Backbone:
């Protein structure tokens, strides 16, 4: 969804990125970049644990946090193509 909020600002807290906010990448920059890669940038939104499950969600989702125990949040799907979101299946 181009123009929508980032998953990092809603469902995917990155504590290491927050701790290193503003610092250069701790690894070699990608050889192919869609846009110039700058320093690390933490989400400006606060995260907190919610529900019995303790899933961390952003303050951007104040109504959704009341249903967090009924959600399945997947944070482990890598993809080798950084541009995959711009393509339709098939």
Residues:
């Amino acid at each position: 969804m181009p123009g929508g909020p980032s998953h990092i600002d809603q469902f995917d807290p990155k504590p290491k990125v927050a701790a290193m906010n503003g610092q250069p990448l701790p690894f070699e920059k990608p050889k192919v970049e869609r846009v110039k890669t700058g320093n690390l940038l933490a989400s400006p939104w606060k995260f907190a644990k919610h529900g019995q499950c303790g899933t961390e969600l952003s303050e951007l989702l104040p109504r959704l946090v009341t249903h967090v125990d009924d959600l399945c949040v997947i944070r482990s799907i890598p993809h080798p193509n950084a541009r995959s979101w711009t393509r339709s299946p098939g």
